[in-house]
Specification:
eight-stranded antiparallel beta barrel
């Protein structure tokens, strides 16, 4: 799980009439990654102007391999569920799939 350590940032995403940029700020051990998921919501296109920020706890532990992806047990402080995580070959890109939602992050 140590490869999850660091700060990961998504591209600007459209969510209805707003845009959102997400960040994962994580520390990690061999067995788990903990930190925060931070979402900055903007009323303007391209994540411009003032934002409203939501920060929630993020805790993940390895559950099993699922094809090329690592299946993680994830808790966000409200509920626990499963997420699939895949890394690019160079380890600089992370994709998380949570049910219907897919989030792509780049390591800062």
């Amino acid at each position: 799980m140590t490869k999850y350590a660091g700060t990961w940032t998504s591209v600007c995403m459209t969510q209805g009439q707003q845009t959102v940029r997400m960040s994962l700020v994580l520390t990690a051990t061999q067995k788990s990654a903990t930190g925060r998921m931070v979402a900055d919501a903007y009323n303007q296109a391209n994540c411009g102007g003032p934002s409203a920020q939501l920060s929630i706890p993020f805790n993940a532990s390895f559950a099993e391999m699922s094809g090329n992806a690592e299946k993680l047990s994830v808790s966000d402080g409200f509920e626990t569920g499963a997420m699939l995580a895949t890394f690019s070959a160079d380890g600089r890109s992370l994709t998380l799939v949570d049910g219907e939602d897919t989030f792509a992050f780049t390591k800062n």
